[in-house]
Records
---
Amino acid sequence: MYQDRILLTGKDILEKEFKIDTRGYRPQEVDKFLDIVIRDYEEFYAIIKDIENEKKDLIEDNIKLKQEIRNLRTKLSVLQEEGSSSGVSNSDLLRRLSNLEKIIYGKE
């Protein structure tokens, strides 16, 4: 994904040859600096790979959670339909409980 946008690899940097002038740079300093750049590039690649793997895992988890939400909503709607189709409301249940208490405890 990101590799398409990055022009250089660690190998490209390592194998780069510079022309030396009479007033050119010191080759040891250039090599030392390029070694640091190579290490950074390799670390960037590792970080990018880790982030892409984490992103992939999060997307998979998100898909699973969305499916679970759909399943729970379906179950909830089925339960609500069953409750409403039986015609029993909370007030009906409370009235029945009250009547049963009166019968059991003999209270009027």
---
Amino acid sequence: MNEPEINTAPGLRLEGIIKSFGGKPVLRGADLDVERGCFMMLLGESGCGKTTLLRIVAGFEKPDAGRVYVCGKDVTGLPPGERGVRTVPQSDSLFPHMSAAGNIAFALRARKTNVGGRLRRMSTEEARSRAEEILRALGLGGMGGRRADTLSGGERQRVAIARAAACGARVILLDEPMSALDALSREQMRGWLGELHEKTGITVLCVTHDRDEAMRTGSRIAVMSGGRIVRCGTTEDVYRHPGSYDAARLTGECGVLRGIAADGTAAFACGLRVPCAGAGTAEAYVRPENVSVSAEGGVIGTVEECAFAGDGYMLTVSVAGGTLLVRSSDRLPAGAEVALKISDTEAVTV
């Protein structure tokens, strides 16, 4: 009777997850919906609780309060193996003496499937054939016969993720999958993860502390700070409309202005006025690309720092009511007075 509701439920739902260790709160009521087939990046700095949240989803930790749902089913009290969730840790956990295909075949053999109303395991030959088929489908066919200990770090991670997908997981959890990879391997992994997601349509929740990785890898992003999810949405929407200082600073460089909002407008001491819903103390999170040095006047500020940024310079400019970051083609000395033009900015009440 409840089947239609389950079928339309998110791939993963977390409701009010609370967790403390030794009396110290780690998760303070984390809520998150990950739609089916979504590739969600969970971004947060070290100590914010993201790995603990991942372990609770996987069933390796029990929450003090709150519920975990997978495709509409409450799995909060279920053991890890019965949740339809598979975790790929930072260390790939492959059997080093087995081939890539052998690792996947071993996992397939460990599962029982319903055939004609009876539970049975795959035969060794069937599992091996299926493993090779999965590797080919995911663009890893050339790795099938290679021992895991001869693969590169990026190759091992891809095989580990393929193994998780092969085991019938409804949700795959990735814990910093690119943290140990060099820059080129990270680029390759990002591309492969996108292809994997397109081919399988599986729900993915991937934890990272790297904002560039978070903004470039998933289709959506959840920003975590202080044990809570502070913002969730498409990467573009979260970047342009962070809604809080934590979400703004974690998703990119930004300056901050503090002022007062009333009647739909926030006014700042530097003279800037921008749209703002609500009333009271307000903040504007200004991205560097929305600020430019102007020869025609504007917000007046003083250069505090000038740092080389490859294709130019990044200026830290102090203005009345806050600090702005400005990209400049010219090197300006500390103490120099500049006029700034600010565009495409809004404010929020805090």
